[in-house]
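Retro notes
What went well: the complex prediction finally ran end to end.
Inputs used:
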Amino acid sequence: MSDAKRRSPAARRKKVRLTLVLCGTLFLAAATALTLSALQENVTFFFGPSEVAEGKVPEGATFRIGGLVEVGSCHIREDGVTREFRITDGSNAVLVTYAGLLPSLFRDGQGVVALGQLDTGHSTFVAKEVLAKHDETYMPTEVVEAMKRAGTWKGDESVAEIQASGTADPCKAKA
Amino acid sequence: MIAELGHYALTLALGVALVQAILPMLGAARGDMQWMGVAVPTALVQFALLMFAFLALMHAYVTSDFSVLNVVANSHSLKPMLYKISGVWGNHEGSLLLWVAVMALFGALVAIFGRNLPPGLKARTLSIQATITVGFLLFMILTSNPFERVFPAPLEGQDLNPLLQDPGLAFHPPMLYIGYVGLSIVFSFACAALIEGKVDAAWARWVRPWTLLAWSFLTGGIALGSWWAYYELGWGGFWFWDPVENASFMPWLVATAMLHSAIVVEKRDTLKSWTILLAIIGFSLSLIGTFLVRSGVLTSVHAFASDPERGVFILMLLAVSIGGSFALYAWRAPSLSGGGLFRPISREGALVLNNLLLTTAAATVLLGTLYPLFLELLTNDKISVGPPFFNATFVPIMIPLFVALGVGPFLPWKRGDLTPVLRLLITAFVFAVVVTVLAGIVIWGQQAYALLGIAVSAWLVGSVVTEIYRRIRPTRSIGFGQAFGRLLNLPRAAWGMSAAHFGIAIVVAGATGASLLTTEKIEAIRIGQTVEVAQFDFTLTGVTQVPGPNYTATRGEFTVTPRDSGTDQSFTLKAENRQFLSNGQVTTEAAIRSASWYDLYAVLGEPVGQGRYTVRLYFKPLVPWMWAGAIFMVIGGLLSLSDRRLRVGAPKRSAAVINSTPDAPSPSAHPAE
């Protein structure tokens, strides 16, 4: 303690600065470690329906799937709560089930992105969330990506097709 | 005609901004008072011109002038007036006009209220502010002109996205921008100080009101947006770690750090480089946020339609301003003289910890936000980084911060001892433990993680109350009556701090309740059927069609009865699904009933055959506290702002005032108050 009084102000200032820098670096290191480990476990990948059909999805992974809602494929099941629909990228389609209310922007022929997992039979995608994030033109980039990966994206022509289907009704109950 | 005048005003503003950017800076370098004096009138003229342009655009919207392209794309004659007005800033071009208008507003405010600022600092600050405005004005005039005409004029507009036709969202952008863009003036002050080579207590005192103003509005703007998402999007979520939400949150975290750091500069003349750096980082994050929203790299209900030209321009703007300011910092920061020393356990030490944790949090949010973009650039993998990542990183950083927040205000400056402080806080600690145990009993069976949030919240509340108590009754010799008198005479800044810290405490509680303690029921029921949600019975009593101004609604009525009090305590909830006439889009209007400590939330879905409707019902404990807490924080910020000691013009007191009471106005306080 009395040692510190004998050091010059400049030296003490240097010590304070050094301590601060060390603390800061420690924090940064801890935060980086935390962040990197969190990134590894918590990043969600995206796959298009064709990639799902080809079996490219890692076992048991939670991922996002994007595409267009296949026209006429949306139904509400008997329990009144579960919705099912097929999501397509123009060359393959995957059956998706979702328990809950679909977003009001959800329509046949429109782009949709869903978050969830494949069921054990690998045939149905059980969605935890159905995302309706649209910008002014109602075309999520993920949907464009899925169609590009499948080779079915036709640029402006596709956009026009999609926007033309925008007035369809949402899901109907199974007869 | 008015649109043309507005357009002209916009271009004139560019010219004025150029003059304001160049002359005062040169004048300050040369010591030329006349050139420096150019800053004030140009700032005022620029504001007048941009305000005129903004009002001109508003006029076009209000009169539904469909010969203006911007109005056609975003408005509709049947829209209610409030949304015609808010539609002005509900699109890319209009919101940019709001942006530059707010930048000019802050410049004008500094010009008017900064009469006691040293002329060099004022000139340089206004000059830098104008430089940034020049960049944005060029961007607007070259790529995003709101006054473009369309010929022939269509008979009707394409309407504003119905999701945006909402009172909460009408005010969200202006509030957010006053916060977001308000950080620009702090940035300008920081750069000016760097150029001058001098950062001292006086600078910190001048900067603090602007930071407080920007911070308060940013808090309010973010809270409004969050509240809107809660009631509009239909499932009671309030924060999605959406990149655009993060774009407003990161500047908030940095602004909070900066606010506290500036206190240290003012009181102890140290931590200067850090404060300046935070000021630069804060606004840089605002600019990055602008880029994310407007460049098209993201899809979001917030994002404006993509246009590569705009993206490239903003990126250049970013490179120049962020690159330039960091280069300036690297060049000049070493010459800032060091100030007071302090030991780790001290109020400075606590504020340094506060800084470190907040900036680390901001950095992890930045990483999580940008990581998908970079990865996509490099590998073409499309990934998303969402709530799981942020919950895993942000929460562990915030918990130590909140714990330390309880202790920090008690530590003395320069050198403190932890033991007596902890002894003071025993009551708060015991309170936290008791509340947590009680909460544990109440929520038995639900998420245990929620207890952590409740514990932290109770700890903070206990600490705030203890702090006020210690301030008014530091020793037992002061009686309770006397202490109460002291309570009324506490400086506003003290109240501001307590209110803001109390606010964050109950926001934490609210967020815990909203995220972890919600009861959700999704069922398909007929009219007359009842669903049990926590301790309430929801009965669907009817579904009817109701017309609105520019939509038709399907309305579901629920009678809600608390199970243990019987039907005399029942009330009705009405949920709607609105279909808009202009484009057929449907929005969900949830029915929300707020009590003092919980919300009941009901959403009507579509008919699903056999006379049934899907309904989504929620019991959400503690959620109203989130909004209440945010209000406390905003009030706290504004209270601190109104404290006379922090006014821009009151650094000196004359001898006559020294003998009077602390709250008497100083004769040298600037005239506008």
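What we learned: Confidence is low (pLDDT under 50) at residues 648-673 of chain B.
What to try next: split runs per interface for comparison.
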